[in-house]
Specification:
Layout (H helix, E strand, L loop, with lengths): L12 H11 L9 E5 L6 H7 L5 H9 L3 E11 L2 E10 L4 E11 L5 H9 L4 H7 L4 E12 L2 H6 L7 E11 L2 E10 L13
Antiparallel strand pairs: 1-5, 2-3, 3-4, 4-7, 5-6, 6-7
Length: 197
């Protein structure tokens, strides 16, 4: 499998982030404070978890040593654009390890991929890998996410004050096909700070 050496240009982050959050204006992420940061300023464990060109499905399974499972919280389908809010769980004990949003252009994916995505049983990364879709994952921006009470509850991290996330794009067969906002769960340590493994 080959990938282009230089990815095609992607839109600037601010309009894309705003557009993603507008798809689900009532979500906890839409009400959170997201501060853009450089990859190098993130704590090392977060850089390992977010600063790569791989699917978060793979990164999370490597980190936690178990398969991740998809839970769709809300979905929208408008023509060929399919968007969803989601969490990924890993376990036992089926702990939340990621909260996110995604938007897919279904017409740019094959029939098998479209069917599996709409079934909402598997993480997108697993589907694209198993379907051998030619893809380019472009992490476009990184964010420090200041946690409010709602996000602490969703991420199952009552003592944490912040975590990190990324905005990424996936090109399938050299066409922009997927936009992702992915926020990883912080570790709980009882001190009120976030400490990833």
């Amino acid at each position: 499998m080959t990938y282009p050496i230089i990815p095609p240009a992607v839109p600037s982050v601010d309009p894309e982030l705003r557009a993603m959050l507008r798809r689900f204006p009532e979500s906890a992420l839409s009400r959170a404070v997201l501060e853009r940061v450089d990859e190098g300023s993130m704590p090392e464990a977060y850089r390992r978890l977010l600063g790569h060109r791989h699917h978060m499905t793979v990164a999370l399974e490597e980190r936690h040593g178990a398969p991740v499972e998809l839970e769709v919280l809300e979905r929208r389908l408008a023509g060929s654009e399919y968007s969803r809010r989601l969490v990924l769980r890993c376990g036992p004990p089926a702990r939340v390890v990621l909260k996110g949003m995604m938007s897919l252009q279904l017409e740019r994916l094959g029939e098998e991929v479209r069917r599996r995505v709409l079934e909402e049983r598997e993480p997108l990364g697993r589907i694209l890998i198993e379907a051998r879709v030619l893809r380019w994952i472009h992490p476009h921006a990184y964010f420090r996410v200041r946690l409010n009470d709602e996000l602490r509850r969703i991420l199952e991290a009552p003592g944490a004050v912040e975590t990190y996330g990324r905005l990424a794009f996936i090109l399938c067969h050299n066409l922009p096909a997927v936009e992702l906002l992915e926020v990883v769960s912080p570790e709980r340590n009882g001190t009120g700070a976030s400490r990833p493994r």
